[in-house]
Design brief:
Blueprint (H helix, E strand, L loop, with lengths): L2 E5 L3 H13 L3 E5 L2 H11 L3 E5 L7 H10 L6 E6 L3 H9 L4 E5 L3 H28 L5 H4 L4 E3 L2 E4 L4 E4 L2 E2 L4 H12 L5 E2 H9 L9 H13 L9 E4 L3 E4 L2
Organism: Roseisolibacter agri
Keywords: DNA-binding, Phosphoprotein, Transcription, Transcription regulation, Two-component regulatory system
GO molecular function: phosphorelay response regulator activity; transcription cis-regulatory region binding
Length: 243
């Protein structure tokens, strides 16, 4: 049974989240503030964290940064206030997997939770064969070829990205999104394609998270993020990678 930690200081919202998640079959722990949320995650290694950003004691940004600095890679779905675009960007920059904006629909939230848990399970299952392939004597036989565009080089075997020789740290979802664009060889990827492939979302989930992650990739990899030369927008469709 997947375990979820909900870090939310509004008792009514926390109760509703716990109730709906438990109906879906999840084991749920609720923490009312930042320090309690950190303690709950450290104590039980949950499969997913639902994290409000505006928390007493320790805000959600610091909770998230601490979790990622400690090497904890479980999916984190942040809860943000309506219209706070800067909060969404900052949360994704710190390593959140996605966000929902309050007030949100329960069905939408549950769909995102299911998709993020499926993705985490898929990535975990894929990691074992990859580790085996890296064993002495066989590593070179399965390693994917490096990809390049502009001054950027991608080393799939190490999940490493450099720009002009300097390593650029990417969050796991940022790296997967970049690879999804690379695999298309310059062809257009729609937002729905990317939501399905990278996040595991269905058409029922409406999200601007692709756009926010693309903005982060441009900030990290483009010489001038405001005038990108490589990660290009195809108006009303999606994105493509220009070598």
């Amino acid at each position: 049974m997947p375990r979820i930690v909900v870090v939310e200081d509004n008792p009514d919202l926390a109760f509703g989240l716990r109730n709906n998640l438990e109906i879906e079959g999840y084991e749920v722990d609720v923490a009312p503030d930042g320090p309690a949320g950190l303690a709950a995650v450290r104590a039980g290694a949950p499969d997913l964290v639902l994290l409000d950003l505006m928390l007493p004691g320790l805000d959600g940004f610091r909770v998230l940064k601490t979790l990622r600095d400690e090497g904890r890679q479980m999916p984190v779905l942040i809860l943000t206030a309506r219209g706070e675009e800067a909060d969404k960007v900052r949360g994704l920059h710190l390593g959140a997997d996605d966000y929902v904006t309050k007030p949100f629909g329960v069905l939408e939230l549950l769909a995102r939770v299911r998709a993020l848990l499926r993705r985490a399970a898929r990535d975990s299952a894929a990691a074992a064969p990859a580790d085996a392939a890296a064993a002495p004597g066989v590593a070179g036989s399965t390693a994917a070829a490096c990809a390049r565009f502009g001054a950027v080089e991608i080393e799939p075997a190490a999940r490493r990205v450099t720009r002009a020789g300097a390593e650029i740290p990417l969050a796991p979802l940022e790296y997967d999104l970049l690879q999804a664009l690379v695999r298309r060889g310059g062809a257009v990827a729609t937002r729905l394609d990317l939501l399905r492939e990278v996040w595991g979302y269905s058409a029922a989930v409406v999200s601007r998270t692709v756009d926010t992650h693309i903005a982060e990739l441009r900030r990290k990899l483009e010489e001038d993020p405001a005038r990108p030369r490589h990660i290009l927008t195809v108006r009303k469709v999606g994105y493509r990678l220009q070598p």
